[in-house]
């Protein structure tokens, strides 16, 4: 396999793992907050997850390491 193809394949797989990790984080936060406060569970979980996604995207843009 060409070195460039392997590089892009690895980046694609890494991005999928990161996206799946954020999905699992959302589910964990949702499950945890549903046990504590049902009315604020979705906004809290979505807010924290989107905040961390934003930080990740800002890091990628700042370091010029955007996947794909």
What does this molecule look like?
This protein is mainly alpha-helical. Helix content is 82%, strand content 0%. The chain has helices at 3-36, 41-62. It starts with a helix and ends in a 6-residue tail after the last helix.
Helix run count: 2
**Alpha carbon gyration radius:** 16 Å
> What distance lies between the first and last C-alpha atoms, to the nearest angstrom?
18 Å
Percent helix:
over 70%
Mean pLDDT comes to 91
**Main sheet attributes: strand count, strand direction, barrel closure:** none
- Given helix and strand content, the structural type is mainly alpha
The proportion of residues in beta strands is under 5%
Q: Which residues sit in consecutive blocks of at least 5 with pLDDT less than 50?
A: none
Oligomer: single chain
Give the helices and strands as they follow along the chain: HH
**Overall strand count:** 0
Q: Give the overall silhouette.
A: elongated
Short description:
Helix content is 82%, strand content 0%. By secondary structure, the chain is mainly alpha-helical.
